[in-house]
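ERR on first pass: missing label on line 2. Operator R.T. fixed the label and resubmitted. Corrected input:
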Amino acid sequence: MDNENAGILLPVETDRRFDQLLADWAVHARLSPEKEIEIYERIFVVEEDLGYDWWRQLVDGFSFKASNVVPKFAFKGTLLPSLV
Amino acid sequence: MKQDLFHELYTGCSKQVYAYLLGRTSSKDTAADLLHDVFLRIWNRMEVAERIPAEQRLYWIFSIASNRVKDHYRNSGNRKQAEEQIRGRHQATPSGDLSSLLAAREQFNELESAIGGLPEEFRCMLIMKAVGGMNSNQIGDALGIPAGTVRYKLSQARGLLVRQLGLLETEAAAGRRKTNG
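pass 2 clean. output:
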């Protein structure tokens, strides 16, 4: 038991078993080094695209409700009565 | 310069931020996706990062992570619903059987279920410590709360898990066996 767990009044053996169990679980829960690298590299792929802010502004600027891309008749009989 | 600082922030904090996101969402995949989003935002705000004193950067990064989790909850339905999903996914199955407690695999699964069933704040701090390798001072700095409060909540989380896993009963039974034998 380290100082971090100083407030706990558990039997020493219980404490030890719990720490061991938690440490085993933590290994399984951690992000793999490969995944960490993949996430890191993906950031630069996205950045080299048009840039996060550009895409963000584009998506924020969309108003799907006002869009006439899909004709109204396409929604007839669906669960989107406001569009019909 | 910009890339060097970003690399330093990523290598220094990604494990800790991932642990926080895992604690908030209880899903490895969601936490990994959010980790990517968080660092993408950091990359796009590197001019801000450069101006922030080094000792305050951890709090800044966790503020971004916290906001990203809020967006995630907003986009994936309401937060209560998400919490219920997490609890449902990790619904503990009480064994009531001593032999099953001895099976390491089952105990491992029980621990995962029990962690998933903890109140979000406890779960988050516990995972930041266990998975992120953070101490109570670092967790306190990241979340903007006193380290003593973190220690108190961590100890409560441990107590809840130990009781839920029946570790105290197991120890007591082992002690009795030793005395009788």
